[in-house]
Amino acid sequence: MTAMSTPHTTARVRKAVVPAAGLGTRFLPATKATPKEMLPVVDKPAIQYVVEEAAAAGLDDVLMVTGRHKRAIEDHFDHAFELEQALAAKGDTVRLDAVRDPARLADIHHIRQGDPLGLGHAVLCARQHVGDQPFAVLLGDDLIDPRETLLSRMLDVRDRYAGSVVALMEVPPEQVHLYSCAAVAPSGEGEDDVVRVTGLVEKPDRASAPSRYAVIGRYVLDPAVFDVLDRTAPGRGGEIQLTDALARLAATGTVHGVIFSGRRYDTGDKADYLRTVVRLACERPDLGPEFIGWLKTFVAGLERGEPWREGRKAA
């Protein structure tokens, strides 16, 4: 085998890990008692979109790595018998299905991270559950539009090249410091959206960034990453960085990247969170037409300096 394709295993990916132990400080005070992953995006919590994406890609075993004060996540993906019975008694099948859907998406497990030691440590917490199998990691504040097939494409690339696969997106130069950035080389197979990752840097400054290809919150990882994480010392911010472990694997030629240019929503930032809600609400057939009409009237009022004239419904 060449160094570029040497894996620990070529097994089919069936498991997903969703790190959800962060404190959500950018959304305080809302996240003082409510997990940031449970903030609603229209009428579903952000983390449900992530689990739906995993399930749609065929990943039917999902481990959520949570922390203290995250019990609401476990409750959301469990059955709510009293609520289900009440809705069934009313004959409200639409809401009944909506309440039942989260528990039916996949076989969902939970583990607590304990100490907030970074994304790399959160992934390491999944070692016993994952075992020696490849697995996907989906970050809960990165939402990929359900019409996109990014995760499925990454799984295909993993099947072809083995090793680990990261999702990359080209970002403006002024934003590279917000992400892990990748040094890349052609894959050699003539696939425009697939590159070989030769290096990774965690949140570099603009001058030292190896490229404008940022790692976004989707990974398909070979179990070899666990041994590397186990030996990885705390890095930037005093945390165990997944980027540092992947950089070591990239040096051996076993990391590839899928370049993504589709619809992605960052719900970890206040302004982007609001934009996400507006975009998805506008696309809903049950909400969009009325909401778009109101939005046009509201924006027109802002431009006239009359934001209070918002096109409220007549009594």
Give an overview in words.
- With 315 residues, the protein is of the alpha/beta class.
- 34% of the residues lie in helices and 22% in strands.
- The protein contains eleven helices and 13 strands.
- The chain has helices at 46-56, 71-76, 81-90, 93-104, 119-124, 127-130, 150-161, 224-230, 242-250, 270-283, 288-304; strands at residues 15-20, 40-41, 44-45, 61-66, 107-112, 135-138, 142-144, 164-170, 180-186, 194-202, 213-221, 255-259, 264-266.
- It has a five-stranded mixed barrel with strand order 8-11-9-10-12.
- Strand 2 and strand 3 form a beta hairpin.
- The longest helix is centred in the C-terminal third of the chain and has 17 residues, at 288-304.
- It starts with 14 loop residues before the first strand and ends in an 11-residue tail after the last helix.
The portion of residues forming beta strands comes to 15-25%
Contiguous runs where pLDDT drops below 50 for at least 5 residues: 1-7
Q: Identify the overall geometry.
A: globular
Helix segment count?
11
Class by alpha and beta content: alpha/beta
| Mean residue pLDDT | 89
How are helices and strands ordered from N to C? EEEHEHHHEHHEEHEEEEHHEEHH
Cα end-to-end separation: 73 Å
Q: Could you tell me the radius of gyration in angstroms?
A: 21 Å
The strands making up the biggest β-sheet line up spatially as: 8-11-9-10-12
Number of strands: 13
Fraction of residues in H or I helices:
25-40%
- Please summarize the sheet with the most strands: 5 strands, mixed, barrel
